[in-house]
Amino acid sequence: MPESISGRQLARQLVAENHQLKVIYTSGYSAELIGSEFETEADTTFLAKPYHSERLANLVAHCLASRAA
After folding, report:
1. How far apart are CA 44 and CA 48, in angstroms?
2. Alpha carbons 1 and 7: distance in angstroms, whole number
3. What is the reported pLDDT for 11?
4. CB neighbours of residue 48 within 10 Å
5. The predicted structure's pLDDT at residue 6
6. What span, in angstroms and rounded, lies between the C-alpha atoms of 35 and 61?
7. 28 versus 61: which is more confidently predicted?
8. Which CA distances in Å does 65 have to 12, 20, 31?
9. What is the DSSP string of 2-64?
10. Interval 7-56: pLDDT, tens
């Protein structure tokens, strides 16, 4: 990420431009430490590392399906 913006700031800007955009945050920090911060934001999901590629694929599919609904 560029030094002038965080991933969270970028996500907020992109969602402001496209309200249908879904955001998946991922971090090596535990869900207990960081995940709760994102639960209050609309259309965001938190995925703690490490994760299996199947879990990521399922989560992306879920986000896409909920966007189409």
Report:
1. 13
2. 7
3. 86
4. 17
5. 83
6. 20
7. 61
8. 21, 12, 24
9. -TT--HHHHHHHHHHH-TT--EEEEESS-IIIIIHHHHTSTTEEEEESS--HHHHHHHHHHHH
10. 888 888 998 999 888 889 888 876 667 656 655 566 678 888 899 999 99
What pLDDT is stored for residue 46 in this prediction? 83
| Distance from chain centroid for Cα 8 | 9
DSSP H or E run through 67: helix 53-68
Among all chains, which residue has been given the structure tokens 């971090």?
A: 27
Buried b / exposed e along 9-45 (16+ C-beta atoms within 10 A)? eebeeebeeeeeebbebeeeeeeeeebeebeeeeebb
If pLDDT is split at 50, 70 and 90, which confidence band does 59 have? very high
Structure token digits, residue 47? 């995925």
